[in-house]
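User: I'm putting together notes for a lab meeting next week and I want to include a structural view of one of the chains we've been expressing. I don't have a solved structure, so I'd like a prediction I can at least talk through. The sequence is below, exactly as it appears in our construct file.
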Amino acid sequence: MQLVIDSANVESIKRLVEYFPIDGVTTNPSIVVKENKPFLPLMKEIRDVIGEEKELFVQVISTSAEDIVEEAKVITESIGGNIIIKVPVTFEGIKAIKRLKKVSIRTLATTVYTPMNAYLAAKAGAEYVAPYVNRIDNLTGDGVKVVAEITKIFTQHNLSCKVLAASFKNTQQIQNVCLAGAHGITAAPELIEAFVNHPSIEANVEQFKQDWISQYGEESILTTIK
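Assistant: Thanks for the context. Below is the predicted structure for the 226-residue chain, given as structure tokens.
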């Protein structure tokens, strides 16, 4: 199961890549704008941080299929490395995904709200779909159920497309989509860090340390065996 950072903040990405088994980074126009940096240099900076092999997801802005394809080509050529183009599941977006598949440009279908959005994108050739879990919930839907139904459709009909669940407000939603069969999740840095931010962990570690020091007077096992 893939663990992907949903951010364009270089420092946050550096921190998470250093500590956690990160598979890639997703960005979107809103995330990029928050960084207040030129687009292409920012993408290249993120590429330098994560390396050539990890996947970097970059979203197009154009709305016509022809322009989406051209943007995708320029983005892929300009940034380099393992690039996935994010394309919204509009009529023109689905058309563009079909065309990009023919020229071997990998895509993620974004703005997915229903299983049939995902089905069309997968049939068109998308390598990933990104259902918006929390946004679906906010529309009185059930984001986790949508993820489960998408994965079921893909499995039953042998569609090789992967579900990279997105849009979360808490770690419980993330855990639920993991249990629902998502192939991966993309989440904000603070949510990924929250996977291990539990007060009991720190309390346990401190107790172990104090018990050790009370017996051996040292803070490291290494000092006791030299």
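A couple of points you could mention at the meeting. The beta strands are 2-6, 24-26, 55-59, 83-88, 107-112, 128-131, 162-165, 184-187. The mean pLDDT is 96.

User: Perfect, that's what I needed.
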